[in-house]
UniProtKB/TrEMBL annotation:
It holds the Pfam family TauE. Belongs to the 4-toluene sulfonate uptake permease (TSUP) (TC 2.A.102) family. Coiled coil: none annotated. InterPro entries: TM_pro_TauE-like, TSUP/Inactive_protease-like. It is a multi-pass membrane protein. This is Probable membrane transporter protein. It is found in: Cell membrane; Membrane. Keywords: Cell membrane, Membrane, Transmembrane, Transmembrane helix. The chain crosses the membrane at residues 7-27, 33-53, 74-94, 114-131, 151-179, 185-205, 217-236, 248-264.
Amino acid sequence: MSGQEIFGYASAIIVGLVIGLAGGGGSILTLPIFVYVFGIPTVLATTYSLFVVGSTSLVGSVNHIIKKRVDLRVTVAFALPSFISVYLSRRFLVPALPDPLFRLNAFVLPKSDAILYFFAVVMIIAARAMIRSDNPAQGEAADGRPRYGSLALDGLAVGLLTGTIGAGGGFLIVPMLVLLAGLPIQRAVATSVLIIAVNSFVGFLGDINHTGLNWNFLLPFTGLSIIGIFIGMYLARFLAPDKLKRGFGWFVLVVASYMIIREIM
């Protein structure tokens, strides 16, 4: 095993660590790791990302459910439309995208490059949210009454994002659960982990019939990520989440900038 591969597998622990600490963000790391460290094709890397993030989040959500941190009503309201959106996008939209996606004279934009550019833009948006680290104390649901219609629409949008680029969307889900469902931030993080888990698995199932998977690679990577989420959930009891998220935000911004520069070059 090369040093680059060892670094890639070690990074799997960081993926789980981030999910355990922040309730999301792990998928922001998995795609760059798969594409740039292991050389996996972009579309297949999004499938792998869905499985790893889904499995890791599922383990974390079981712990949250046992400790009664998850709001199941809000989960259903957000997740049902999201499930539909993510499955349809993985099953039909992504395979239907032409390759190249765009052509103008000598300029050609392959589908894989377009997905990476889109992913990098999403990373920048996520990094900005983490660096600002504004966890809203109140919003539309300051009265504690969830806005189920708005939650459903947001679920559709997050499902489309998850299906297209293999990102769980935790950086979007957590603030929406605070604003639209009136959940405390800790409860929003726990509920987000469950939504990410099911979202990711639904997207993965949309791929499984037309994608060849290397389970000898995928399962060890996922196992290390699961170890990471246990570490993250343990450290979350002692570390200030705002400072961690801000530092991770700067790291994500650097990775996104690297992705854009590398693709342009």
